[in-house]
Specification:
disordered N terminus, Farnesyl Diphosphate Synthase, 293 residues, EC 2.5.1.32, 15-cis-phytoene synthase, Isoprenoid_synthase_dom_sf, Squ/phyt_synthse, carotenoid biosynthesis
Amino acid sequence: MLARGRRGYQTSAKALNYCVELVQERDVERYLCNLSAPAAVRPALFALHAFNLETARVRSSTREPQIARMRFVWWRSTVTAALRGEPPDNPVAQALAGAAAGGGLTGRFFHQMLEAREDDVDTTQPADRAELLRYCERTAGSLLHLSLEASGVAADEPTESAALHVGCAVGIATLLRGAAHHAEQGASYIPADVAQRHGASLKQLLSGRPSAPLCDAAAELAHEATTHLLAARALAPDLSPQARALLQPAVVAELVLQRLQAHGYNVFAPELREPLGLRLRTALAWNAAFRSF
């Protein structure tokens, strides 16, 4: 399969297969969501989500902040080159070039993702809820906006608002689910003001052990994520079927939040990190039948 981008650039089957295999291996739920999208847009979605995975792991791949920043500099120049149809010899960059058909991908969203993750290099904990939401908007929200652009979905107000809400919900759910991994890296995404409100210290957040204050703080954030999911779904009547098909990550967030609630909002419960499997497949099939998300 070849994907044609700007200036006639063609992405090789090898580059696309690399992206598909990367997403399948490291984010099987996003892989399943992509398979539920129209076949014509899947190459672009896998390219975008491979980019997301590669840049998300920069922080954890090195203990040297300066090295992490150098990698983000490389990614900035790589994105710029890919969007003009001149990617370096890198399969993700080449797949991005193919996804940028007709100049339809906005560079601003890529750079928001990179800036958020570079800002994250020296951050142990968000100061407050607003900072956490900004991070989710710039990462998960930007990724959803790019997915919609790559699919040719019109960027009207309801669609942009729904993408923003789903991005916040997905971002929060993903960060809560990854709390154990973040703690191992000496970081927590539970904001300081939320933790303090429930009497949870940073030491508790990084301990890897559940506590009542920690669970209460996680419950507050889970409620925030659910509120964003409800706000997005309230906009469903105003969204095109194409837009709804690309907001399926909302289902992943919902199932993660349900599992978190079932385990008493213990973000360190090992079950939280197990694949969603059949429940996700069933939900995606239901949504495809009823054009929902």
